[in-house]
Specification:
By secondary structure, the chain is α/β, with parallel strands linked by helices. 41% of the residues lie in helices and 23% in strands.
């Protein structure tokens, strides 16, 4: 089977339009039409029903598209495997992450890459808000999964935003406001307010303090926690309330409820790496992470 003919068919079937397919492949429409006609002759079946504007896959065309998708979805894996084999230094991937829910998909993606690149070595380290960027600069890690507040300030880092969110208040299910869907921050002034300690992460510590000041709030008490897990365990036990995003591991705490509040500072979930990095494995990992997050998002809709 001719690879180019199959590629032309695959792109045409994906777009169901010759014009769009020609634009994506940087070829003429007649070239695509010719290759697909030859492919139909090779198989002895009709692959498309042509209309005035678009294409419709026949049953045979649908089968071939599914098979072609299996082949072309592995293209980047094949390129990475070949390049890694030629350069042993590139057969190592060092990943840093913060304690967030999506980090738990990294081993699955790493395993998929190891199956294609058997000599690949993957390592993971956990960092907090303050330490993940310095680890990149020191090249302890090659790529990091992090949360970011505010604008991107690191000029020598490349980044790929996966998602964004605004913080919600998390409370115990017996909290007086647990059944509310949206409230004002001021309504939590009588509660113990839980925040991450400055020693754990200065960024969320300063941000939480700033929110209290902006809303002129004086909580019953401010309790500093040594980790996000400790903070969520405290809320789960009814010890207080806290600001948290959807990126946290909240599904591990069945007694926690989330409430939207009038706090609109954006929080970004993103991958970061050094701009001058040329590792094909790194860029392949970034692509796989983006695809995985997109799939998860579609399943949750």
């Amino acid at each position: 089977m001719n690879y180019n003919k199959l590629k032309y068919f695959y792109i045409a079937a994906k777009n169901l339009n010759y014009t769009k397919a020609a634009s994506e492949l940087y070829v003429s429409q007649s070239a695509i039409s010719r290759h697909i006609k030859e492919l139909e002759e090779d198989f002895g079946v009709q692959l498309f029903v042509r209309t005035n504007r678009d294409l419709i896959l026949t049953d045979a065309g649908k089968v071939l598209y599914d098979k072609a998708n299996e082949i072309f979805s592995k293209e980047s894996d094949i390129y990475s495997a070949v390049r890694a084999a030629a350069n042993q230094e590139s057969s190592e991937l060092r990943i840093g992450t913060m304690g967030i829910r999506f980090a738990y998909t990294i081993p699955m993606i790493a395993n998929e890459m190891i199956n294609v690149i058997p000599n690949l070595k993957v390592s993971m380290q956990r960092f907090n808000w303050d330490t993940i960027c310095p680890a990149l600069y020191r090249k302890e890690i090659q790529v990091g999964l992090r949360l970011r507040l505010g604008e991107m300030k690191e000029e020598n880092l490349a980044h790929l935003v996966l998602d964004q969110d605004t913080p919600s208040m998390i409370v115990h299910k017996t909290h007086r406001l647990a059944d509310k869907t949206s409230v004002k921050m001021k309504e939590f002034e009588k509660d113990n307010f839980l925040i991450l300690s400055k020693a754990e992460s200065s960024i969320p510590f300063s941000h939480s303090k700033g929110i209290l000041k902006k809303n002129q709030m004086k909580p019953k008490s401010i309790i500093e926690c040594a980790s996000p897990e400790e903070l969520m365990m405290m809320v789960n036990s009814g010890a207080g309330v806290a600001l948290m995003s959807k990126f946290a591991l909240l599904d591990q705490f069945p007694d926690i409820r989330t409430i939207d509040v009038d706090e609109h500072d954006l929080l970004w979930l993103e991958l970061i790496w050094l701009k001058d990095s040329e590792s094909p494995l790194l860029h392949h990992f970034v692509q796989k992470m983006e695809e995985c997050y997109s799939n998860i998002t579609r399943q949750q809709q």
